[in-house]
Amino acid sequence: MNLKELENKTILMFGKSRAFSDDEFMLQMKLHNIHVVKEYSDEVVLIVDGRMMTPYEDNESVKLYEQKKAEFVDIDTLDRALSNFLDEDTLLMSLKLSHDKDRLKGYLQNGMVSDALFLKLMKMYTWDGDDFFGNDDNRDISAAFISRFYKNIERNHNVQYSSRGFLHLIIQTTDEGLIETVSLLEPLQKSFQADAEDSNYRIITAIATHYRTPKRVLKMLIKNSNSYVRTLIAMREDCDESMQIQLFETDDEEVLRALSYNEKLNINLALKLMKNKEYAKNIAKYINLDNRVFDMLYESSSLELAINNSIRYDMQKKLIDTNNIDIMTALATNKYLHKDIFYELVAKKDENINIAIYRNPSVQKTTLAKAYKNKKYYTSLASNENTPEDILQKLSQSEDTVILLGLAKNPSTPIDVLYQLQLDSRFERSVKENPTFGRHIQTENIGWQE
């Protein structure tokens, strides 16, 4: 419907608008220069069937339709056109100046306004110091928010009346604007310093860990939230230098420890954190290594450097040249082990090193198959994701609890073996937590008994 074609013309309206209050509907008609009447005349160019029509209006509508006096539309068509052609800037300014909460509430409950406008309007809503469902108005608005954005809400009919609805929205969405709007809602802002018992706390932690949360929101959380939320942000892959500095300046021990786990930790902050031995070892394990950092940590944290995923060949070579069994054993578990270093480690002919090597998923299947000839390596092979399937099948015949537990946890273990292991109470929980078995259950939709 083109509202421009109705400017300076007359329409006959039966009943009421579905999306707008009576006053708001008439205001929109006035803004579009459309004259609304309740009785037919020759000036009428359009007849609208609204909701809550009286018996008289029903009869009159049928008579006019049969006489083909004018074009007919239902109220949804007109409401949608009015919603699509709202002057957003004028509306927002009007609501801001008038502080008309009822009018604002009407727009928030209008399912035909755009999502973008809805989010702008939500930022204007005042919660009067109450929670999402603390009073009737807040409950209505919270329900409207959740109902609008919740995916497949028909499968969870009551979720719009629970704070879980906001939690699920955050988990479901990829819309940065939606995440930011939720983070700015007054009831959530009041919970930034709350503990895990607070009903809104899980929403905050979901925002802190969501991969699409805007950095300006994360910085707001760093400034206003508690220690635990800050630690969640400190370990994010996209925690950039400015955020790291902001976190470092909190001087919170838990936050600093979390920063030490960040693989993209800023080098200048890393140098400051290295003064603490615990943080230095964490940094050695996780930071993206360059020669400068490696050399600084080599003397004090060689064991931790050996398991760092970013360690290069020349660094691995320097560690193996120490001829330290503990360091070489740790290096043998590194999934980014260079093939030349692998051969050097095998040449050491040390059982501890070999046991570690055959647990390493980067080792070739042919090498792992050969290792099956030695029973000493069965435990390593049972937990190795790269062990050939036929070897895992053979290992399932073992009576060794450690071997069977390794198979129960190994995502490469054949499904039929996992089924057998599930029947043993010792391994039942590990099988249930095995991602391969979980995916199989979901695919087959057969479930299991708790």
Instruction: Note the beta-strand portion.
Output: under 5%
Q: Please list the strands of the largest sheet in the order they lie side by side.
A: 2-1-3-4
Distance N terminus to C terminus? 56 Å
**CATH arch. level architecture of the domain at 3-85:** 3-Layer(aba) Sandwich
CATH class of the domain at 3-85: Alpha Beta
**Radius of gyration over alpha carbons?**
33 Å
Helix segment tally: 30
Secondary-structure content class: mainly alpha
Average pLDDT reading = 92
Any idea of the CATH topology of the domain at 3-85?
Rossmann fold
The proportion of residues forming helix, as a percent range, comes to: 55-70%
Describe this structure in words.
It contains 30 helices and 4 strands. The chain is mainly alpha-helical. Helix 2 (55-67) links the parallel strand 3 and strand 4. Among the domains are: 3-85, Rossmann fold; 309-357, no CATH class; 374-450, no CATH class. Helix 8 (164-172) runs parallel beside helix 11 (201-209) and helix 13 runs parallel beside helix 15 (253-260). Strands 2-1-3-4 form a 4-stranded parallel beta sheet, sandwiched between helices. Helices cover 56% and strands 4% of the residues.
Task: Considering the chains and any ligands shown, give keywords for the structure.
450 residues, mainly alpha, Rossmann fold, four-stranded parallel β-sheet, 56% helix
